[in-house]
Specification:
The protein is of the alpha+beta class. The protein folds into two domains: 43 residues; 88 residues, Sandwich (Immunoglobulin-like). 23% of the residues lie in helices and 38% in strands. It has one helix and nine strands, in the order αβββββββββ. The chain has a five-stranded mixed β-sheet with strand order 2-9-8-4-5, with no helix packed on it. Strands 1-3-7-6 form a four-stranded antiparallel β-sheet, with no helix packed on it. β8 and β9 form a beta hairpin.
């Protein structure tokens, strides 16, 4: 086999290898940019409301009809705050504070000798939805 023939195949193989590497990097980087991984995107991350200062604390033993409170951040739209305990709707009182909203409610009297999660759902002022809550032991 002549030497120029071997040289031709070596050159062809090297060019194909470079092409394959180029295509792999091209497709992997365009995929990242299509999902917002690149700079210059116009969408902002969703800044959800936050819930803090749960009282009584997580896993505290309480009696039926006990009062509970928590703070909702200033990003929360107070009209959208919804609280339920074991899928039972709870009437709440919302007071505006300097750092957000103080939410107060009472555990349903029908819940006794059980664990129950206080579920919170609210929408932020930027329409981002947040869910949170904590577990209490009701005697």
């Amino acid at each position: 086999m002549p030497i120029y023939f071997l040289e031709f195949f070596r050159e062809l193989f090297m060019n194909l290898a470079k092409l394959i590497v180029f295509l792999i990097f091209s497709f992997s980087s365009t995929g990242a940019f299509s999902y917002g991984g690149g700079s210059g995107g116009s969408e902002k991350a969703c800044d959800k409301p936050r819930f803090t200062e749960f009282t009584p604390a997580h896993l505290t033993v309480v009696s039926a009809q006990s009062e509970f409170t928590f703070m909702a951040s200033a990003l929360t739209n107070p009209k959208t705050i919804d609280v339920n305990v074991k899928k039972l709707a709870v009437e709440i009182e919302i007071n505006e504070m300097s750092t957000g909203y103080l939410v107060t409610g009472m555990l349903p009297d029908s819940l006794q000798n059980t664990y129950a999660r206080v579920n919170i759902t609210a929408t932020g002022t930027n329409n981002c939805v947040a869910n949170d809550g904590w577990l209490l032991k009701i005697e």
